[in-house]
Design a protein that fits this description.
With about 350 residues, this protein is of the alpha/beta class. The protein has nine helices and 13 strands. α1 (about 15-25) packs across α2 and α2 (about 30-40) crosses α3 (about 50-60).
Length: about 350
């Protein structure tokens, strides 16, 4: 594919990419926009500056001569120049960004089985089998691990029994579980929960020099690409049609002892969503002034019910199935598991 080495005349792949990103992010700066299209399309532009030049040309920010030429040709910049007292602020340095991507991760599927809080290798085998059997029986075409699929006991910050710190055994158990599940659900997405985040926190404390090693990243350690599993990190939302899916730890101060978890998520999100994290099955709905209904669901867990950090608890086993139609409307079946059966 030919690369763009200057702003040139309108037209071409680089021009189309630049127009699209300006329309998508109308208030972003030229350098920020250039970074986005260059990172996603390095084969199109010679370098970052070439992408930035293309953006600035379209914004009408490449100097008086070029702006005058565009006006004579009947064209104008795509965005009005920002002025204050006749001055522009192009010399301001760009701000750092915590994340390169913050758009929700969209799953295109018709029926999705949601498994939350499996906590491998501390999973409950009967509960996990029940959820998987139900998903197969009702024709789910995608599996969503909604956080804390792994326990990562060995990387925990909290003091625990050192005799249980067997990291390789935890990974080996995951490999066995993932291989069996893959045979029934070849399409799957793995969203990180707070227990998966234990891994990079542990390395940040103990060996920060290793954080940039790709081989030690979560997707590589869990062999997610090999299992055909897509990875979603950084607390990003996963979308199933119009339904937002979270693990439940995304808010800074979490949800502390709510009447029920779903109501706690409603008070935080103020939007329809489904989450795990608190290991309980619940549902909460409220109607606003304009008769719009917001519903939140919390999903039960699939782990051992007597964890050493919560011997006595209000947990229950459970899972969910979400059906999405062509208009992105959805239906949630939030299931409890009791005595090996789903209700």
């Amino acid at each position: 594919m030919p690369r763009v080495n200057n702003h040139g005349s309108d037209g071409g792949v680089g021009y189309d990419l630049a127009v699209a990103v300006i329309k998508k992010f109308p208030n972003a700066g030229a350098l920020t926009l250039a970074r986005k299209i260059y990172a996603a399309n390095p084969e199109v532009f010679l370098n970052l500056e070439a992408a930035r030049t293309r953006i600035r040309y379209l914004l009408g920010a490449t100097g008086k001569v070029n702006r005058a030429a565009r006006r004579r040709a009947g064209g104008e910049g795509m965005r009005a120049r920002r002025k204050s007292g006749g001055r522009t602020f192009e010399a301001l340095p760009p701000g750092l960004q915590y994340m390169d991507e913050w758009e929700p991760y969209v799953i295109n599927a018709k029926k999705v089985l949601i498994l939350a809080d499996i906590h491998i290798p501390y999973h409950d085998l009967d509960a996990l089998k029940c959820a998987l059997d139900y998903g197969v029986a009702c024709g789910c075409d995608h599996l969503l691990y909604l956080g804390d699929a792994m326990d990562f006991y060995s990387a925990s910050f909290w003091e625990k029994d050192p005799r249980k710190r067997r990291f390789q055994e935890e990974l080996n158990t995951w490999y066995k579980v993932a291989k069996v599940i893959q045979s029934a659900f070849p399409k799957a997405t793995f969203k990180e929960g707070n227990h998966e985040e234990r891994l990079w926190r542990y390395m940040a404390r103990k060996a920060p020099e290793l954080l940039d090693l790709e081989v030690l990243s979560l997707p590589e350690l869990l062999h997610l690409p090999g299992f055909g599993i897509e990875h979603v990190g950084d607390k990003r939302i996963v979308k199933l049609g119009h339904l937002s899916c979270l693990h439940g730890h995304e808010w800074k101060y979490g949800i502390s002892s709510p009447v029920n978890p779903a109501r706690g998520y409603y008070l935080r999100a103020k939007a329809t969503c489904i989450a795990g994290h608190l290991h309980q099955t619940s549902e909460h709905s409220e109607k606003d002034l304009h008769e719009s209904i917001v519903t939140c669901w919390s999903v039960g867990c699939l782990c051992d019910m007597r964890a050493d950090f919560a011997r006595y608890n209000r947990w229950n086993h459970g899972f969910a199935v979400v059906t999405i139609d062509a208009d992105d409307e959805f239906e949630v079946e939030n299931k409890r598991i009791f005595d090996g059966r789903a209700f």
